[in-house]
Every structure is written in structure tokens, then in C-alpha cells.
Design a protein that fits this description.
By secondary structure, the chain is α+β, with helices and mostly antiparallel strands. It folds into 5 domains: 9-104, GIY-YIG endonuclease (3-Layer(aba) Sandwich), CATH 3.40.1440; 130-245, no CATH class; 259-383, Nucleotidyltransferase, domain 5, CATH 3.30.420; 414-565, UvrC, RNAse H endonuclease domain (Nucleotidyltransferase, domain 5, 2-Layer Sandwich), CATH 3.30.420; 575-626, DNA polymerase, domain 1. 45% of the residues lie in helices and 18% in strands. It has helices spanning 9-23, 51-57, 65-73, 85-99, 146-159, 174-177, 191-225, 229-245, 297-310, 344-355, 365-406, 458-476, 490-503, 540-574, 581-591, 594-599, 612-626, and strands at residues 31-36, 42-48, 76-81, 115-118, 126-129, 138-140, 259-267, 270-279, 282-292, 318-320, 358-360, 414-423, 426-436, 439-440, 446-449, 483-487, 510-515, 521-526, 531-533. Strands 12, 13, 14, 15, 16, 17, 18 and 19 form an 8-stranded mixed β-sheet that branches. A hairpin with a 7-residue loop joins strand 4 and strand 5. The protein is globular.
Length: 627
């Protein structure tokens, strides 16, 4: 069995001793800390008002389950001292973007927000983009999602005749004939006209859509009075689109300022941040982001906020933040950590200094109510997420239970599924996945290199892998499955049952999943001799079987490709005279890949004590292989 390399107890104890020594030397200063795993990879970045207090807190006292997982992975740390809290805030943001640590709150590409952009060109265009460049273009947003941005752009394209094409055509297009383009490809368009359109779009996207709507209503009335009913209908549709796209006003403030109102809620190791976008005193949009977090709640909330505004070119005039939750003042994790928590006032001051706009933590009045609304919306979003998860879990549990009843198993808790993979008998491998109560348990997955079978013999491969798996289960007293699933029909089932019952004395139900000509799950076979079980194709039980078959196939194919890739590298190098196993390993370790060996110069081989003549032979052989 190809288990992953495990860290030895000696290596672990050495790492812990190193950490204890470094903890004693931590300074009483602000800064950032970087937690690393056994492979020296950065897995978490944090900021601290007092590095000594915050970093020590990870290794003292008790933690909840998710923080325990982070701490269990830590084998080393380093820290960077900063001159102030604001420097620590900015540095943390940059380090997270650079290293993308697995335990941090990350605004990755799929979490960045879309903007509408008016390009800075002689003949400007409207675009939806997630990339904000320093190109003197005008950016508006962010929008809650790509659909909202695209729909808004679609409306603006109909209302304002900016060019739609990426490359200027040689003649006018359909948009010109529809009245949606000024046709700069064929006509001269004055800058004043572009300025007017840009100003109107800016007004619309900055919250002035009510004024635009009034103007459209006036034009619609004029068109109707002049009996231009087609034009009147077109204008009416534009007004309806504005109402559909722009959310109705929920709160109005008298000062007509642009502000972002932020709130957050935490539950079950997850955080939801809610942003209410107020433009010209009206709430026009909102956006919720939910993610698992591993640090202290307010600290990680501010990490999210810092990342968000570091990429946001369309800053409001004012940002409203929530207070530090009262239960964060005395954390159960205890000890020094409580003294290092970010308080809302200092967080707001740091953000204000960095962004150069007003950042407040309101204590009373309408602004406090708005923050309360953001917090309440975050709670609702998080509660909705967990209710959806619970519904999915209930459905999955029920599917597993119903599947068990269909094949005569009273309690179907653990399913182990196998799939074999080879191409024309080369590099044969097998893989096992485990589903617990209908859900995959990836830490239980296993990979096998097939040892005794020559050529594409699926039955003998199944016998070998079943034998190896359940000999180990018996030897190590591991948990037995309630059901074994094999990829195939009567022959595969019979091979598995023979090994289990006649060689190992185990009586575990075995079923097979037969695929159709399109390689999709078609039928469930159970027993020896195997008989088909009739399951409705639209049932949750059938869907569960499809998931199991797809997952074990994916896992087996991925492992086979890894092994085949390694085999191809080995065979290419081994075919070169003068390259044995030792030199092959040395070359791969030094260069990292076959591609880099092929691209190397003669000089690059000298540190490996490989002469110029052999180096030329290696490069030539690899280049010949490609041609």
C-alpha cells in the first residue's frame, strides 16, 4: 500500500523543542507571524499588537477543534517586527496574498469582486472586470456578483451608445442600426459627447439611477404623445430593467454620503461578513462572504476587510465597522491572547490611516442601526448556510439508509469502494475510497501499486487489492466496512467474495457497479452469484452510487497518471547509455523535471560531476524523444 510518508516521532519532538526555544525569545512588539508545517510551507499568517502574547497563545491553553487542526500542523514559525499596528495590518495583507496560506481567510480569484469599467481610450467602452489596473479608466463597484454586474452593463449598453466591439470594425455593425453605438468606426465623435455619456453613466453607477429614471420617463411620455410607440415601449423596458436590477431603497440617510457598512457573525467555525453599500445616502446593494476562520474572530474579520479594500479602487467616503464583540474580550483560550485582541477603535484608526478615508465604529443613532442591520444580515446568511448543509446531510443519510435497505443491510454506515486503472496493462494501480454515512472521508482513501499481476487482468487485480486491504484490516484491527463496492459486474464481485470468504473468512456484502456504453453508472449488482437490484434512476440512492463510482474512478485515474508520468521519465533517462539508477535520481533531484534537464546547458551538468560528452548525449537524447 502506498501510504504517504509519515513524520517520525523524533522529527516531531525536535520541531517542538525548536518552537519552545523560539517562544522564549519573542519580543513585546507589534508585527506579523508566519506558521509553517513539516514541509516548511507557510500555512498561516497573523498579525499581533504584542508578538510574544499572541504567538505563545497557540501553544498554551485549550482551543476549539478547527484551531486545534491548525496548531497540530505547526512545526516552526518566524516573525517580522513592525513599527506600528497599521504596518502589521498592511504587512499581513501582503503576506497572505503572496503565500496563500491554507488556513487564512483568502480573497482568491473566485472571491474577488466584479467591477464595471469605462475604458480610458479615444473611443471608450464598458466592460465587466475583476482585475483593477492603474490605467486611468473609471471603475464602479464592487458588485455583489458577476450576474448583477453583467445585467447592469447590459442595461447601460442599451441606454448609452458607446462602442461594443473590442477591435474597431471596418464598417458599421448591428448595434449602430439599433441605436446602441455612435459608430466611431465611420463617423467622427466629439469628445464632448463622450464626456456627457461618461458623466451620465457615472451618475447612474454612483447611485443616481432615480434621476436617470425620471429622464427616461419624460422621454417615454414624449414618444407616446408623438405616437412613436416602439420607442416608448423601448424606454419603458429600460425603466423596468432599472427597477429590476437596482435593489429597492432600504435605508435613507439625510447626508447623501457614499458609505460601506460592515458587520459579521460567527458560528460553528465559520464567519460571514456582510457589506451594505450605501450610495448617495441610499442602500443600493449588499454582499455576503462566508468562509471558515482559524484565528480570533475580530482579528480575522479585520484581515478580510484589509484584503478587500487593498484591491478596491472605488472607495466610499466613509466605512462603518462593528464593535468588538463582548465575548471576545475574555476568550476561553485564555492567557495572554486576550491582551492581544484588536479592539474596534484601534482597528478603525489603523484602517483610516491606511486608506485615507473616514472609518467609524458608531456607538449610537442611525449609523449604529445600520451596522446592526449588517450584523443581522450576516447572522441570517450563516444560519441559512447551515440549514442548507443540514438538509443536504439529512438527504445523504437517508440515501445511505435506503440503499442499505434495498440490498438487505440494516445499518449502512461505512462503504469502501475500489477501482482499477491501467492502459494496455502498463503501470496497473488500484484505489479505494471511503464513504461514511453517504459522505466521502478523504483521509481514509488508499492507493495501491499492483504487484503480482502482469497485463490487463481486472479479476486478478481485484483479488490482489482486496486481499491486501483486508489482510491489513484484520492485522491492525481496523474498522470493517458494512459494504464493499467494486467497479464491475459478476466477475469482479465473484473475485472479491472468493478472497474475502475463502481466504480471509470475512463475510462482508459486496456489490458491483456496472457502467453503460457511455461509461455512466447503469446498474447495481449484489451477491454471488450476482443479481441486479432495481433502483429508480432519479432516486437519491442511485445518485449516491454515481457519486461513489465517479469519485473512486477519479482517484484511481489520478494515481495512474502520476505513476505513468514517473515511469515515462524513468524510461527516457534509463535508455541513455551511462545513466543508471543513481545518476537518474541525482538528475531529477537537481533539475526537478525532465523538461528542465532537456532545457539545461552543458555547464549546468558540471556540479553533478557529469562530463561535457555525457551531458551532450543526455540533452540530444531527450530532444530526439520529443521530435
Amino acid at each position: 500500500m502506498m501510504d504517504e510518508n509519515r513524520e517520525t516521532q523524533q522529527e516531531y519532538e525536535k520541531a517542538m523543542e525548536n518552537i519552545r526555544n523560539k517562544l522564549a525569545l519573542l519580543p513585546d512588539l507589534p508585527g506579523c507571524y508566519l506558521m509553517k508545517n513539516s514541509e516548511r510551507k507557510i500555512i498561516y499568517v497573523g498579525k499581533a499588537k504584542v508578538l510574544k502574547n499572541r504567538v505563545r497563545s497557540y501553544f498554551t491553553g485549550s482551543h476549539d477543534g478547527k484551531t486545534q487542526r491548525l496548531v497540530a500542523d505547526i512545526r516552526d514559525f518566524e516573525y517580522i517586527v513592525t513599527g506600528s499596528n497599521i504596518e502589521a495590518l498592511i504587512l499581513e495583507c501582503n503576506l497572505i496574498k503572496t503565500h496563500q496560506p491554507r488556513y487564512n481567510v483568502l480573497l482568491k480569484d473566485d472571491k474577488t469582486f466584479p467591477y464595471i469599467k469605462i475604458t480610458n481610450e479615444p473611443h471608450p467602452r464598458l466592460e465587466v472586470t475583476r482585475k483593477v489596473l492603474k490605467d486611468k479608466a473609471k471603475y464602479f463597484g464592487p458588485y455583489p456578483n458577476a450576474y448583477a454586474a453583467q445585467q447592469t452593463k447590459k442595461l447601460l449598453d442599451r441606454m448609452y451608445p458607446l462602442r461594443k466591439c473590442g477591435v474597431m470594425p471596418k464598417e458599421v455593425c448591428l448595434y449602430y442600426h439599433m441605436g446602441q453605438c455612435l459608430a466611431p468606426c465611420e463617423k467622427d465623435v466629439e469628445q464632448a459627447e463622450y464626456d456627457r455619456i461618461t458623466q451620465e453613466i457615472t451618475s447612474f453607477l454612483s447611485g443616481g439611477h432615480e434621476e436617470i429614471k425620471k429622464e427616461l420617463q419624460r422621454k417615454m411620455q414624449e414618444a407616446a404623445e408623438e405616437l412613436y410607440f416602439e420607442r416608448a415601449k423601448e424606454l419603458r423596458d429600460q425603466i423596468l430593467n432599472i427597477d429590476a436590477i437596482m435593489e429597492k431603497q432600504k435605508i435613507t440617510t439625510a447626508d447623501a454620503r457614499d458609505r460601506d457598512v460592515l458587520g459579521f457573525s460567527v458560528d460553528k467555525g465559520w464567519m460571514c461578513v456582510q457589506i451594505l453599500y450605501m450610495r448617495q445616502g441610499k442602500m443600493v446593494q449588499r454582499h455576503a462572504s462566508a468562509f471558515p476562520f482559524y484565528g480570533e474572530a475580530y482579528n480575522d474579520f479585520m484581515t478580510f476587510v484589509t484584503q478587500y479594500y487593498s484591491d478596491n479602487p472605488a472607495l466610499p467616503q466613509e466605512i462603518l465597522l462593528p464593535e468588538t464583540p463582548k465575548d471576545s474580550q475574555n476568550p476561553e483560550q485564555g492567557g495572554a491572547e486576550g491582551a492581544d485582541l484588536l479592539d474596534a477603535a484601534s482597528a478603525a484608526a489603523s484602517l483610516q490611516e491606511w486608506l485615507g478615508i473616514k472609518v467609524l465604529v458608531p456607538q449610537r443613532g442611525m449609523k449604529r442601526q445600520m451596522v446592526g442591520m449588517a450584523i443581522e444580515n450576516a447572522k441570517v446568511s450563516l444560519d441559512e448556510k447551515f440549514r442548507l448543509i443540514e438538509r443536504d446531510e439529512e438527504r445523504t443519510l437517508k440515501a445511505a439508509a435506503n440503499l442499505g435497505q434495498s440490498i438487505g443491510i440494516d445499518h449502512l454506515h461505512r462503504i469502501e469502494a475500489f477501482d482499477n486503472s491501467n492502459i494496455q496493462g502498463t503501470n496497473p494501480v488500484s484505489a479505494m475510497v471511503v464513504f461514511i454515512d453517504g459522505k466521502p472521508d478523504k483521509k481514509e482513501y488508499r492507493k495501491y501499486k499492483v504487484r503480482s499481476v502482469q497485463g490487463p487482468d481486472d479479476y486478478e487485480t481485484m483479488r490482489e487489492v482486496i486481499r491486501r486491504r483486508y489482510e491489513r484490516v484484520l492485522k491492525e484491527n481496523l474498522e470493517m466496512p458494512d459494504l464493499i463496492v467494486v467497479d464491475g459486474g459478476k466477475g469482479q464481485i465473484s473475485a472479491a467474495v472468493d478472497v474475502l470468504e475463502n481466504e480471509l473468512g470475512l463475510f462482508i456484502p459486496v456489490c458491483g457497479l456496472v457502467k453503460d456504453v457511455k461509461h455512466r453508472t447503469a446498474q447495481l449488482m449484489v451477491g454471488d452469484p450476482a443479481e441486479p437490484v432495481d433502483l429508480p434512476r432519479d432516486s437519491q440512492e442511485f445518485y449516491l452510487l454515481q457519486r461513489i463510482q465517479d469519485e473512486v474512478h477519479r482517484f484511481a485515474i489520478t494515481f495512474h497518471r502520476e505513476q505513468r508520468g514517473k515511469s515515462m521519465v524513468t524510461s527516457k533517462l534509463d535508455s541513455i547509455p551511462g545513466i543508471g539508477e543513481k545518476r537518474r535520481k541525482l538528475l531529477l533531484k537537481h533539475f526537478g523535471s525532465l523538461k528542465k534537464i532537456k532545457e539545461a546547458s552543458i555547464d549546468d551538468f558540471r556540479p553533478l560531476s557529469i562530463g561535457d560528452k555525457l551531458a551532450k548525449q543526455i540533452i540530444a537524447a531527450l530532444q530526439d524523444e520529443e521530435s
